[in-house]
Amino acid sequence: MKFTDYSIKALKPRAKRFEVYSDEKTGFGLRVSETGVKSWLSRYRRNGELVRLTLGTYPAMTLKQARIKHNEFRSWLHDGVDPRHELKRRRKEAEQVRLTEAGAGTVAELAHEYLERHARPKKRSWREDERILKKDILPQWKQYKAKDITRRDVIKLLDRIADRGAPIMANRTLAVISRMFGFGVRRGIVDASPCVAIDPPGEEKSRDRVLTENEVRAFWSGLHKARAQEPVKLALKLQLVTVQRRGEIAGAAWSEFDLATGWWTVPAGRSKNNLSHRVPLSSLALGLLTELKQLAGDSQW
User: Fold this and answer.
1) CA–CA distance from 57 to each of 24, 36, 73, 123 (Å)?
2) Any bridge partners for residue 160, and if so which?
3) Is 132 helix (H, G, I), strand (E, B) or coil?
4) 68-88 pLDDT, tens per residue?
5) Could you give the strand order of the β-sheet that contains 257-258, starting from the edge strand earlier in sequence?
6) How far is CA 81 from CA 45, 89, 152, in A?
7) CA 75 to chain CA mean position, Å
8) Are the C-beta atoms of residues 34 and 15 closer than 8 Å to each other?
9) Whole-prediction pTM value?
10) Are 13 and 30 within 8 A, CB to CB?
């Protein structure tokens, strides 16, 4: 159809949304929803894929404005640029400018970017960072500008946590704050970290608690009477005899085991230190794995 304000206003909604395109045959169109909302479209093909981009809604975006926007997209395509990618790039630049103009953004914005761009993709323990942020950091600082947080602010926050009887949690909180602001420095969100030269408030001690022979015997024998499924009991026994972390036991796939040679290779992606390591399997461990294999059936786990 030929687009004019008259012809556009004459378009009535139908039972299902529909699209109409300009008779110029350039991919300039209009989508009409079931409720009568009219949205401008720019349609084009890129590497065989049919793409539709929404330009705006009518009449907030006029016919003239929509046509100018559509023609801009066409000029990008002529230059070999996909409008989708160009729009994404411009939005990213605009967001960076917004953060800069806002004084590097709030602590809440920094925390969100830290979790999404660093913690989630790179740390298996990212949920603990998120928990600490939500529990102790954001309730105090979320509205503050990240650049305005001082060393004294950090110390006062840690003191509050230590004073409630949780000095080790204060240490963990300091570590999260330090990682988050270090990330902010690397991303250009803040110029410096407020955590420099702050000592952990809690004294850390290495755990030297070990099970006695009687405790090992009680644990092993008690599992027979435990109200747990058999695979769980066998997994706990396997954890004891291989001395591996529970996550490495619970997430193990049969492809990691070589029962013929008696070796278990824990891949780097499931190891706490992100390094692959091999675990020798004793005859007792092999016996437990044989029982687990029978229970597992065709499962890969």
Assistant:
1) 20, 11, 17, 42
2) none
3) helix
4) 999 999 999 999 999 999 999
5) 257-258, 263-266, 277-280
6) 12, 11, 49
7) 36
8) yes
9) 0.47
10) no
CA 19 – CA 33 distance, rounded (Å): 9
pLDDT tens-digit series, residues 111-136: 999 999 999 998 878 999 999 999 99
Number of other residues whose CB lies within 10 A of the CB of residue 42: 23
Query: Which of 3, 236, 6 lies closest to 19 in space, CA to CA?
Result: 3
Asked whether the beta carbons of 76 and 63 are under 8 A apart, the reply is no
Single-letter amino acid code for the residue at 81: V
C-alpha to C-alpha distances, 83 to 47, 112, 141, nearest whole angstrom: 13, 28, 39
DSSP 8-state class, residue 62: -
- The helix/strand/coil state of 25 is coil
Burial tier of 36 (Cβ tally within 10 Å: 0-12, 13-18, 19+): exposed
Residues of the chain with pLDDT under 70: 97-104, 206-207
Q: Which of 191, 198, 110, 202 is nearest to 152 (CA)?
A: 198
- 58: tokens are 């009518």
Could you tell me whether strands 263-266 and 277-280 are parallel, antiparallel, or unpaired per DSSP bridges?
Answer: antiparallel
Q: Where does the chain show beta strands of DSSP type E?
A: 18-21, 28-32, 38-46, 49-58, 257-258, 263-266, 277-280
Q: What is the mean pLDDT of the chain?
A: 91
